[in-house]
């Protein structure tokens, strides 16, 4: 009997301990849940406080938008003032005076371009400058494309310049396609005629060579060769007429200017 009571007491103690342990665990869980709920509630209250603090800032930012609008309006007003000022300056331009100035400047540039002794003004550097500029503008390509793009236009424009210069030095009143000089013609030995005796033909040949090179046409190059042969034959006949008209003066001119078409070449 005593043993049974002792055994029951031991078992009851164990059960009591287990019940107490379970109660402690349940209590601990409740405390943890309560703490988590309080923490969550605190975070929500903190968020509400932050939102309430931000709202006054939104209200206070309204004047800033107003100041930006004032700055934009001031900028627009300044731009409008500048535009009106520029428009007034344009309206005050004297078109006739501007045209006279442009015409005078063009004549001055042309006179500067044509003045001086032919081939004694450093033309080599001028043509090299033009050639380098054309090289910068040329399209991509090989050596053939470079030669075509560079030398073709240079020769074409150079020939045109020689023709214009020759006609101006000769005088329009003496210009004729016939080998025989005009009745009122005068022997010209100055200007470009101090370098070659038939510079108009030189300019024509340079232009035709340049055009043939620029277009890459073998047929045009062949025709240029035929034209050169024709000019040489025509020069022989033309100089017979010139010797007949001017006599010793033309003979002296031939001795002083031995080149017919190209200086130091032919």
Automatic annotation (TrEMBL):
Gene Ontology CC: one annotated term: endoplasmic reticulum
InterPro entries: Phopholipid_MeTrfase
The name this protein goes by in its record: Protein-S-isoprenylcysteine O-methyltransferase
Species whose genome carries this gene: Rhodosorus marinus
Domain of life: Eukaryota
Membrane listed as a keyword: yes
Topology term for the membrane: Multi-pass membrane protein
Keywords: Lipid biosynthesis, Lipid metabolism, Membrane, Phospholipid biosynthesis, Phospholipid metabolism, Transmembrane, Transmembrane helix
GO biological process, one term: phosphatidylcholine biosynthetic process
Region spans: Disordered: 44-65
MF annotations from Gene Ontology: protein C-terminal S-isoprenylcysteine carboxyl O-methyltransferase activity
Subcellular location: Endomembrane system
A UniProt-annotated Pfam family: PEMT
The UniProt record lists the keyword Lipid biosynthesis: yes
């Amino acid at each position: 009997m005593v043993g049974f009571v002792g055994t029951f007491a031991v078992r009851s103690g164990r059960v009591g301990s287990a019940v107490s342990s379970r109660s402690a665990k349940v209590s601990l869980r409740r405390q943890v849940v309560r703490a988590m709920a309080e923490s969550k509630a605190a975070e929500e209250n903190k968020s509400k406080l932050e939102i309430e603090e931000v709202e006054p800032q939104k209200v206070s930012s309204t004047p800033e938008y107003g100041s930006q609008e004032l700055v934009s309006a001031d900028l627009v007003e300044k731009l409008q003032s500048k535009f009106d000022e520029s428009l007034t300056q344009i309206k005050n331009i004297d078109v006739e005076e501007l045209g006279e100035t442009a015409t005078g400047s063009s004549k001055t540039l042309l006179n500067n371009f044509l003045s001086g002794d032919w081939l004694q003004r450093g033309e080599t550097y001028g043509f090299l400058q033009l050639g380098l500029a054309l090289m910068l503008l040329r399209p991509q390509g090989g050596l053939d494309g470079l030669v075509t793009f560079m030398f073709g236009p240079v020769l074409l424009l150079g020939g045109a310049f020689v023709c214009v210069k020759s006609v101006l030095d000769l005088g329009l009143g003496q210009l004729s396609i016939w080998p025989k000089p005009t009745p009122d013609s005068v022997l010209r030995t100055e200007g470009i005629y101090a370098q070659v005796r038939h510079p108009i033909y030189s300019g024509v040949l340079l232009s035709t060579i340049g055009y043939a090179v620029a277009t890459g046409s073998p047929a045009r190059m062949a025709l240029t060769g035929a034209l050169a042969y024709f000019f040489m034959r025509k020069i022989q006949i033309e100089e017979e007429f010139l010797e007949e008209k001017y006599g010793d003066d033309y003979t002296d001119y031939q001795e002083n200017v031995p080149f017919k078409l190209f200086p130091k070449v032919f």
